[in-house]
Amino acid sequence: MQRMAMVINVRPEMLEEYRRLHAETWPGVLAALRRAHVRNYSIFLKDHTLFGYLEYHGQDWDADMVGVAADPATQRWWALTDPCQDPWPSRAPGEWWARMEPVFLME
């Protein structure tokens, strides 16, 4: 299992829309994430920064994320959620949410 954390900003004027969308996340989007071996996915908010945490239980993250991106429900979901977000300035090329480096774990 691989723990992953990432950040992105939410546009202040879109915060309530982002909250509304995530209050009733579409079942098809959740199913695509489960098929991609994603578990324990949470998104937290502080001011206008979103912090995402998930646990990946698969063998090939990149291939699984290609599958998520090809999912029609996820594509429609992203069409609604992406305009709410403002990518992190120092994200890596090709990233939307900026991945974070793990520096501490207590189990």
Furnish the topology, listing elements before pairings:
Blueprint: E1 2-10, H1 15-23, H2 27-35, E2 38-46, E3 49-56, H3 61-70, H4 72-81, E4 85-86, E5 98-99
Antiparallel strand pairs: 1-3, 1-4, 1-5, 2-3
Question: In a nutshell, what does this entry contain?
Answer:
With 107 residues, the protein is of the alpha+beta class. 36% of the residues lie in helices and 28% in strands. The chain contains 4 helices and 5 strands, in the order E-H-H-E-E-H-H-E-E.
How many strands, what sense, and barrel or not for the largest sheet?
5 strands, antiparallel
Work out the number of β strands: 5
User: Would you tell me which CATH topology applies?
Assistant: Alpha-Beta Plaits
Number of domains: 1
CATH architectural type: 2-Layer Sandwich
What attributes characterize this protein structure?
globular; 107 residues; single chain; 4 helices; alpha+beta; Alpha-Beta Plaits; five-stranded antiparallel β-sheet; 36% helix
Describe the model.
The structure is a single chain. The protein is an alpha+beta fold and 107 residues long. It contains 4 helices and 5 strands; from the N terminus they run E-H-H-E-E-H-H-E-E. Strands 1, 2, 3, 4 and 5 form a 5-stranded antiparallel β-sheet that branches. The protein starts with a strand and ends in an 8-residue tail after the last strand. Helices cover 36% and strands 28% of the residues.
